[in-house]
Structure formats: C-alpha cells, structure tokens
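Q: Is it fine to ask for two folds in a single conversation?
A: Yes, each is treated on its own. Send the first.
Q: Here.
A: Result:
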Amino acid sequence: MATRIAAALAAFVSLTVPALAQDPATPAPRTVAVELQTTMGTITVALEVERAPITAGNFLRYVDEQRLDGTVFYRSMILDWEPHPNGLIQGGTQFDPARILPPIAHEPTSVTGLTHGRGALSMARNEPGSANGDFSILLQAQPSMDADPDNPDPLGYAVFGTVVGGMDVVEAIHAAPRDPDKGEGWMKGEMLAQPVIITRAVRAAAE
C-alpha cells in the first residue's frame, strides 16, 4: 500500500511541478499611452515609463503641462534604404524658451534595453544630456542610433516609446513636401514646406 501511495504521489508531483514552472506570470514593462493629435491625423504612442523612466517621464511632463500643444512636426529625413519608406520625422518645441524644460540625463539603449526599431520614439539632442522637448519617430529600424561602441555615436540616442497606432499618419507626414532651401547644415532640405501641427498631446483614455 505504501508503495502504491508513494508512486501516486510521485506521479502527481511530476504532473504539477512542471506546469507551475512553465507559468512565470511575468508582467510586461509598464507603459503609458499618449495621443499626438495632428492636422494629418492621430498618432498613438506607448511611453516606456518603467524601462526609460527619465526620458518617458520628461515627455509626459511636456504632455501634461500642454507644452507640446501647438508645436509641429517640422522635419522629414528620407533614407534611400530598403525597406521603404525609410528615415524619420522630427517634431517638438524647437528650443522655444516659453515651452522647454531643463535638459535631462541621457538614458542609453544599453541601459534601458530598448532599441531603435520601426515606430520608435527617440529624443533629439546635441551632446548626451542636452535633450529637452524635441523628438523623432523612426520609419524603420535604425540600429546605428543605438548605444554601441562600434557605432558613429557610441552613446546613441534615447528610445522612450513606440507607435502603437497611426503609423500611416507618420508615413504621410514623412512623405509631405519638403522645402529645399529650409534648414541649416546637414539638415538643409529636410524641413517640411508646411509643418504639421500637433494640435493636442494628451494621455489616451483607458480602455
């Protein structure tokens, strides 16, 4: 009898323990959804408030304090690389003293674990630690923007979210006419002839 009980117990353990081990129940990193309502349509983004707390938190402050309302997408960088369309769009406060907040610390992708994939939101900056209220949205993956000692800019740029709705709007902005005479230096010819207005930036309503 004892042998049969032991065998039954062993069989029970063999069935239940692996099942428990296969269910890690690990929650996904927390994000906050934001709508960028523009004159060409709405772009919905998920901000990585857990994995990139400094950068995502900074962007949320711009949203909550209505500092992005009335700003524009002003730049379309086109890359002639497969797949098409490729490049990025850029928008934000453009160093408007009435809108910008103090610069934030740089959060490289080597720390956050995020990457510059299709639809990634990334902070515009000069040197690391100078980002404030301007950002880019990528049309396709750009690993050269990640933090990597082999990349032209080893510290890379700070990814803080991704587009979860409205990539068609991103692509339409990217395809909008550019003015060949606008812009300075290496950005000359990348400025939109008619910037696209961000009429409102707001946290998305919970479903």
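Q: Second one now.
A: Result:
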Amino acid sequence: MVEILAENLSGKTVMGDDGAELGLLYNITMRMKTGQLGHLIVDPGERGVNADFEVDAHGHYLVPVSNVQAVKDHIVVRR
C-alpha cells in the first residue's frame, strides 16, 4: 500500500468521477479514538457545483473518505 502524507494533499483539486471539479481539499476529519478517517472537507470556492454531499456551516462539502476512488494529481471521488 502506498503512503500519502496529509500535508501533500492539502490544496489538491477534488473531482467527481463524472469529471466535475468540486473544489479544493481544505482538510480531512479523523476519529480520535480509532484514527479512522471520516470526511474530506472540500472548499467549493466560487464554483457552487451541486455536489449532493452534506455541507458544513462554512459551505464546505463533507465527502466521506469511503467515496475516494483515486489520489494522484487530483483526488477523484464517487458522487
């Protein structure tokens, strides 16, 4: 399994599996007791794409980590 440091993910473009650009990765949540990752917090910026994800109080998309399909030049998530 390839290791990717969280600091290398910050600011990466997050795209839907349909090719739509959802925004930039803002942060990642983690459950403190288990260390299990919870959500990618995606800043949509001015895009305003209807991403069908839960939205936090700041307008960021909360994308479940289980939706991540690929991490390379950008992060691809299942919509």
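Q: Anything structural to flag on that second result?
A: Two points. The chain has a mean pLDDT of 88. The chain has one domain: 6-77.
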